UniProtKB/TrEMBL annotation:
Keywords, sorted A to Z: Methyltransferase, S-adenosyl-L-methionine, Transferase
Top-level division of the source organism's lineage: Bacteria
Top enzyme class: transferase
GO biological process: methylation
UniProt: S-adenosyl-L-methionine binding residues: 116-120, 139, 183
This enzyme's EC code(s): 2.1.1.297
Domain Release factor glutamine methyltransferase N-terminal, chain residue ranges per copy: 5-73
Catalysed conversion reaction: L-glutaminyl-[peptide chain release factor] + S-adenosyl-L-methionine = N(5)-methyl-L-glutaminyl-[peptide chain release factor] + S-adenosyl-L-homocysteine + H(+)
Isomerase is among the record's keywords: no
Protein name: Release factor glutamine methyltransferase
Annotated ranges, domain Methyltransferase small: 104-191
Amino acid sequence: MNYKEWRQQAEQQMVVKGYEPNAIQWFMMDTLQWSRTSLILNEMTPMAESTLKQLNDGLSQLLTGMPVQYVVGQSEFYGRQFKVNSDVLIPRPETEEVVHYFLTQLAAAKVVADIGVGSGAIAITLKAERPELRVIATDISFQALAVARENAQRLQRDITFLQGNALQPLIDQDVRLDGLISNPPYIGEHERTLMDNSVIQYEPHVALFATQEGYQVYAAILRDLPHVMQDGAPVVFEIGFQQGAQLTRMMQQLYPHITPEVINDINGHARIFHFKWTQP
């Protein structure tokens, strides 16, 4: 069997199962460490038995609905490869927009924090794009922090990692921030039935779901901002497309002197919640 025959058969099996057949091409490229051009040039080459077994093993996982990023153990974000496993969310392309926007707001910032670091994609990207920054990353999950540390070491970026809930680790160390970014769990339990089954089955629920209809972590962060933020520092959240109005109301109740803005992503969906912090 050659590579083209295997790919066509695998894509057909994915279609029968109701999964995206394009995942096969990405899986082959990652597994074989080939570019798309190499895949095309070698498509008529007979496959070695060891390669056939390797691809079949991965296909078996894909046919269960496992995301291709978990099958190959990595995901691209902002042009860099990050290790991912079931302890961390798969970085989304939409989050790249949030990071880019945050970087445009930092000006002369020195100390910034990523709350809910997950794989480390946001924190490490900030350090890579702005090496002069001191980047602090927190997460409640020890397992997620282990993945983030591994990614930071592999990509040679010096990040301060702290374990704990929301801003508490920063408060405990009397940290003052020139910027804060967070892509926290923001899906309410009532939205579970609307989600793709592969996300529910394979991605960590602690990083997906929040109580208070998805607003619990936002509320915890907002409540403690006076303890960690410098005046004029930007705060940027990634949000669900229907959450902007409620977060604005929460801000008005807590800090009526601050006017936040909700910014759409390239698809026209509300994605970024932003304001400049000033002490009450």
